[in-house]
Amino acid sequence: MKRLFSILAIACIMAFGTVNASTNAYTVETATTAVATSFQEEPAVAERSFTQQVKERFIEGGPFFMGIVLLCLILGLAIAIERIIYLNLATTNSKKLTANVEDALNSGGIEAAKEVCRNTKGPVASIFYQGLDRADEDIDAAEKAVVAYGGVQMGQLEKNVSWISLFIALAPMLGFMGTVLGMIDAFDKIEAAGDMNPSLVAGGIKVALLTTVFGLIVAIILQIFYNYIISKIDSIVNDMEDASISLMDLLVRHKK
Q1: DSSP assignment, residue 48?
Q2: Range of the domain at 104
Q3: Which of 139, 150, 157, 203 has its Cα between 20 and 30 A from that of 6?
């Protein structure tokens, strides 16, 4: 529940920042236009920045589909940022932890090793603790506990990642839908006018293509974050597996 609230909070902050930036940009642009109109004897107009051009194109794309595409970007980025923070906090120096557990086993036994795991954050320490908690029974029981709890920790690492892949697929599809509807509207205008006049359909086709462009941009941005998150998860999972093997070796040596 706390993680859900954090995702919603990040999404709200990003949405508020986007709306506020758009409002400020619109206010500045309106004031600039008014000044330029009042001083017509100075026709030179400053060249627009890239961000201003993107905002104008975004507004031209229409509020409905572009708003949904923007929502996909905000929610996808919020989940991606939350996952990146969680994965970075879940990263543990497994070699150092293994060495500390080995020293604790040799000096104070199982309870001392469990205390080391309790004082260490991350999924590797949690897996170590579960294995040490079953170490008094036998090695097989400890191994089963490590494997079972490893699956639980893997599920925690991959939590909400599927939503990012959904937004990656949804954004361009919404853009394509906007393009198709825009093309249909353009052909309706041609049919109503009975004439193939480019000026009748140029605006509608431009709006239709803008939805596709922004849908693809959103998908590309989220895909970069998604690939980074997946690679980070794979790295942590490999680290967990290597550390689990090291733990089993430590328990076998401790039993002898």
Answers
A1: P
A2: 1-256
A3: 150
What does the block give as tokens for 134?
């079953």
* CA atoms of 188 and 106, how far apart (whole Å): 82
Among 19-28, 157-166, 179-188, the range with the most confident prediction by mean pLDDT is 157-166
pLDDT at 81 over 90: yes
Q: For 176-179, which contacts have Cβ atoms below 8 Å and span 24 or more sequence positions?
A: 176/212, 176/215, 177/65, 177/211, 178/61, 178/62, 178/65, 178/66, 178/207, 178/208, 178/211, 178/212, 178/215, 179/208, 179/209, 179/211, 179/212
Q: Compute the distance between CA of residue 30 and CA of residue 181 in angstroms, rounded to an integer.
A: 31
DSSP secondary structure code for residue 236 in this structure: H
DSSP state of 152: H
How far from 234 is each of 227, 241, 247, CA to CA, in Å?
11, 11, 20
Query: Which of 7-16, 91-100, 145-154 is predicted with the least confidence, judged by mean pLDDT?
Result: 7-16
Number of domains in the chain: 1
